[in-house]
Amino acid sequence: xxxxxxxxxxxxxxxxxxxxxxxxxxxxxxxxxxxxxxxxxxxxxxxxxxxxxxxxxxxxxxxxxxxxxxxxxxxxxxxxxxxxxxxxxxxxxxxxxxxxxxxxxxxxxxxxxxxxxxxxxxxxxxxxxxxxxxxxxxxxxxxxxxxxxxxxxxxxxxxxxxxxxxxxxxxxxxxxxxxxxxxxxxxxxxxxxxxxxxxxxxxxxxxxxxxxxxxxxxxxxxxxxxxxxxxxxxxxxxxxxxxxxxxxxxxxxxxxxxxxxxxxxxxxxxxxxxxxxxxxxxxxxxxxxxxxxxxxxxxxxxxxxxxxxxxxxxxxxxxxxxxxxxxxxxxxxxxxxxxxxxxxxxxxxxxxxxxxxxxxxxxxxxxxxxxxxxxxxxxxxxxxxxxxxxxxxxxxxxxxxxxxxxxxxxxxxxxxxxxxxxxxxxxxxxxxxxxxxxxxxxxxxxxxxxxxxxxxxxxxxxxxxxxxxxxxxxxxxxxxxxxxxxxxxxxxxxxxxxxxxxxxxxxxxxxxxxxxxxxxxxxxxxxxxxxxxxxxxxxxxxxxxxxxxxxxxxxxxxxxxxx
Length: 563
Hints:
By secondary structure, the protein is of the alpha+beta class. The chain has 22 helices and 10 strands. The strands form 3 sheets. Strands 3-6-4-5 form a 4-stranded antiparallel sheet.
């Protein structure tokens, strides 16, 4: 049995380190599934499992713990950036700027309330208290990457070691932070006298009025004599509205029209356009009719084709010449669950689903050109991930000298990879990088990175955690963390409702995204049948994540640099 005892007590053993991480992560994940009041803490429980292991003396060499912690953080933030990158800049449109500004206000208020609590409740002469309050703030806002960024900044402020274990403050504030976010959004409902049924009805009415989102399909007959002898391009230019004519029935024969196809009176067309443009197109071309395309002499098929060839990545629809070269039409593109109008200037990306209309043999030909291989799509693009991490680490290591700061500002291993991942996710196709990663692969790598980070932080903080809670300021971290959580939500949430008139469910999603808190989003989704919470969450999440990481470093370097 000595071999088994040595396995648990020999910290320098590779087997011991692997066993320790496996045990901490497994226990933390399983305990994280237990719901308290209908709310589960999820993988964050890995932190508490690590603290428990560290408390009982189960540890590993500090350099090993630090390496695994930092590598896990890099992997976590990079996969987040890669996921949110494609929609990062688009999130600023359609009310997104206002939502993001409200989110920025929330982040700034979190920092302001943290400093207020620091000056009111803590001894400012103790150099440890401010870093511990930063850890408490990131527990209160449930933001793990911010904790990682703060830890990294502390290593610059304390180059010879001795940096405070701010994970203790994080752990004290986190559970009540999760509950506080949800509780504050519920309180907001009563403060603003909001009826959930009325909010749901308002979303339904808004969906009915939004005619610019989904492609609209219709069959038209050419009855306007002005169009006789004119090409589709001429009609398109005259109308100045986007539409795609995917099929043409002329004298009983079906063809795939292109921009140079000439129309005649009586021709029957299959048109795809934005719903907002449908009425004008009908008024100009002719009335809607019923056409049995399957009974025509050349039956057409509609097929969704996956873009899986890396050579197609970044090419626009206009460059592919689908109608003139291949004899088919593309009516819309589905990307990350969103339908996009098939504009000639729209660049294709690996992972796109292209709706192609035409004769079956020609559609199959296009499928070969685009790839349409699920197997190929499932293959991980490892090179892109590690190229991005390489560039991200270099970018994060660039020193930025700011007057008044004791050390140059660096975005570090949290901020650098995050920014590069966002840029690669959005513009990677321009340099022929295949950035597509399946949702399951992204989630797997992200969660592996997160649990490695949390386990490492917990094990390192475990030795002194009990003393911090019982003999130190543990109770202060709990209630100050709650204050940091709740006050900004009540202020910004009320402002978003009363001044900017946002729907309550959108506000709930915005708050959850600003606090990067999935349990809060899950709660919002439970009480709302629409997509408003998810839209609010995704709109502010990228910028909020970036600001949380940046704020952590700036706060530590600017405020704690003189300790």
